[in-house]
Every structure is written in C-alpha cells, then in structure tokens.
C-alpha cells in the first residue's frame, strides 16, 4: 500500500566551519559580511610547486582534537584525542578527522532537535551523510609506508579501511548514536551535501523513516586541495578575503574549503506533536543530470530542467536563491543565466555564501543549506562578497547562435546580487548545488507557517 | 629477558592503546585476556602485535599472528619463540 506523502521539517542543525567556534559564531560572521578564508601554511610551504595558497580550513586544534601519531609508521595518525571528551576512544578509533566532525555535528544537531535516546535509536531513524573525497590523509600515509618504505601492510593496522571508506562519515555517526534505520551515503561530488539531505527528505516524505540525520562533511585534507590545484581551477592572485568572488568579472577559480554540515530532519507531524521548534520546512527536492556527456562543463539545459522539476509541483517562488556560485569563470555565468531564465530578473535575490567560506566540496550543499536556514531565521540575505564588477559585455557563449538563454550581459542583473547582507522578508529559499559528472540538485525550503 | 620483563613492556604498549581503559592495566597477569578482561576491541589486536614487533625488534610470521590467542601469555610465548628463532 502506498503511504501518504509526509511533510518534512528541519529541527536541528550543526556543523564545523572554518575560523568559527560554533553555529552561533558562524551565523554572526556570515551576517557581518566576514570572510572565513585564510592563507594556508600547508600550501605555502610548497612554494612554486603549488598554484593556490588560500583555503577555508579547520585545524585539529581549532576543534579541540589532538592527533596521536603512530609510533610504528611515519606521518600516520594512529587515532585522535578529543580534548573535551565529547566522543569516546572507541568511536575515535574508527574515524578520520571528517568523521569526527560528522559525529560532533550530529550530537549538536540531535541536541537542538530534542530527540530522546529512544527516538534516536529506533528503527525509524536513519543516517545519511556523505563526503566528496576519500580518507586521503589516512590512505596517503598507509600507502607511502607500504609502497615506498616497503613496510609490512599490518603496520597500517586495523583502522585503515573504516577511516577511509566512502561512507565512513555515516558509518561512524551510526555507530555513535546507535540508530536502527537506514545508514548510507550519497556521493555526487560537490552536490553530495545537498544530495544526502535530499535523499533524507525523500526517506521521510515517502514514509520510510520518521527522522534522519543528514548532511555532508569534507575533512581538512591537503591531498584533496592538491587534486584541484593540479587541475588549475583554484583561485589565485587575490588576498584571502578577496579570493572567492562569484560573478565578479575577474574571478579565476574557486577557493577550496573544508567543513561539515549536519541537519536533523523529521516527519513534520511528529515534530509538531512533540512541540519541536521547526527551523524550516522542506517543500521540494529535485535532482537530475546534464545528459550531455561532459564531466565538467555546466549545462544550461540541465539547469533549466532542474528548475522545471523543482517548481513542477509548487506555486511557490523563492525570495532568495542560494546559488552554487563557486567563483569559476564558466560555472557562475551559466548558473546566473539559468536562474534568470527560470525566475525572471526581479522579485528575488541571489546569495552566494561560497564568497565567504569557499567551496566545501562534499560538505558545500549541507553547510550552504544551513546558511539558507539561517537566512530564513534572520530574515537577511547573505551577500556575494567581492562581486565588485560584473561583465558589461555578453559572455562568449551568449553570442553563439544556438544559445537559448538570456542574451543580456551579467551586469544587467546587478540588482539581484547584494554585496553586503540585506534585510528583507524571506519566506522561501532555493538551494542549488552541482557536481562533476553533470549532476544537479535543488531544494526549496520555507518558514513554518 | 624474563617473562615478567616482557609483560612490563607489553603493558607499556597497552598504555598507548586508547581504546583500553588504563585502570585495567594495573593487575595484568599471564592469564589476563585482552578481549574478555581488558575489553580490547578485537580489531586492536593487530595494532598491538605490530607495536610488539617494533618494541621487541622482532618480526612475527603471518601464520603465528593468525593463530595468536588473546591472553597475555600467548603473546609472551610468541615473543620468546620468535626471539629464539632469530
């Protein structure tokens, strides 16, 4: 028998954010138009071998964690110490740094949600958290010791797999909170964070779970940074706070960042019945693929279909569009034009929080989802820092005779893109994220009325 | 190196294993069982074996590790046997 579709509420959220002590600090810095991006010593020490040197990173010390170096293997974190005793040694033993962030965020999100242990540990509670990268820091050291230093495989010990496997974040969280429902990870590159939240929304919507811990995490990893640096796609040549500049005519790449976002989603009726504070309601989630065979290039038609799918079953229109807005030359232009194509050129604002904290890869969609809930709560649009100058001339592709989108230059949409936080009535926010492979995700959230 | 000295060195190794409660290391005997008495996660046994190899400057055979029991005396016996073979 088909279950009746459920309404889904956001009842808790937490995360790990560069330079921020907690969610409140994150909120304060974002609405104060601060940048969370810094020069990264892990990059600068490599001199001219590396192209970009800025990042949104989080150190172990900033998270009150301490690495226990292996006594038998070079540069290998045997485990971590939680200086605040939030996570037990047994749970820390199986976790890379990103999984620890996922666990810490999960505990805070559940606390905010007010779930009892009985609710958390039930068969109706799921965990759906993903990461964009593998456990590179763990794998690199393990492989180096085996392949280059010719050490025995057992020196890497028994926590090489659990700390590096694809769904390590979900697995560690599930082992921590002992839920008995779903435990999975969705992987969709830079759409991972939103993809997991979207999947969690569907699990509740279709009656398969009552509540789900969902999100995305990208643990600080210089190896991850290096992969994108080698592609020459990272921002270069600006001071840290000016490096992420979505839509600006001089943008030249994204700022690699790390962090995590975890949200607690719940069947709206159950949340209401127990008197929970509803942070937001999820109206709709839609995702698709470009279908053009291109791994990297953004697709206008893919994004057109994304908007069509998102708006298909609702008459709502967003007051704010939280864009993917990475600060890459190709991505931003296509995205802005697809938003305008879907919504017209007025009646909403565009927010690009990557301008403040960079691109958190697999965590981006989740952290930006949290930033969007904060926009609803604070009735304030987060800015697009550094979007100082928009292109006064049409983009090259706009002059192609086959181009089916708006033909006016990006500068004609200046009024949509605030450069500072902007107070206004916000009832609905749409969040957009895309990933390598041509995957597109969109979610719409609203204030609870 | 007598058996008590070996046990003392093993205890020093166990102190570095954060999943073992240090309180439980005060009365270690040959009959102490890593898993039953110390609540050591079974996955930690390979980590302990690797640290023992380093500390005692020996190299266990893979089969010996596969067959290793979970009591302190089992690893003491293996250390002595491996040293004698070397």
Describe the structure.
The complex is a heterodimer of chains A (449) and B (86). Chain A has 14 helices and 16 strands. Chain A is of the alpha/beta class. In chain A, strand 11, helix 12 and strand 12 (349-351) form a beta-alpha-beta unit. In chain A, helix 11 (300-311) runs parallel beside helix 12. Chain A is globular and about 60 Å long. The two termini of chain A are 31 Å apart. Chain B is mostly helical and 86 residues long. Helix content of chain B is 52%, strand content 0%. Chain B contains 4 helices and no strands. Chain B has helices at 3-15, 44-56, 62-66, 72-85. In chain B, helix 1 packs across helix 2. The interface between A and B is medium-sized, with 16 and 16 residues.
Question: Could you outline the blueprint of secondary structure elements for this entry?
Answer:
The complex is a heterodimer of chains A (449) and B (86).
Chain A: E1 8-16, H1 23-31, E2 38-39, H2 41-44, E3 54-55, E4 65-69, E5 77-82, H3 89-93, H4 97-113, H5 117-120, E6 125-131, H6 136-148, H7 168-177, E7 183-184, H8 192-205, E8 211-218, H9 222-230, E9 259-267, H10 268-273, E10 280-289, H11 300-311, E11 320-322, H12 329-343, E12 349-351, H13 354-357, H14 364-378, E13 380-381, E14 422-423, E15 428-435, E16 439-446
Parallel strand pairs in A: 6-7, 6-8, 11-12, 11-15
Antiparallel strand pairs in A: 1-9, 1-10, 2-3, 4-5, 8-9, 10-16, 13-14, 15-16
Helix pairs in contact in A: 4-7, 8-14, 11-12
Chain B: H1 3-15, H2 44-56, H3 62-66, H4 72-85
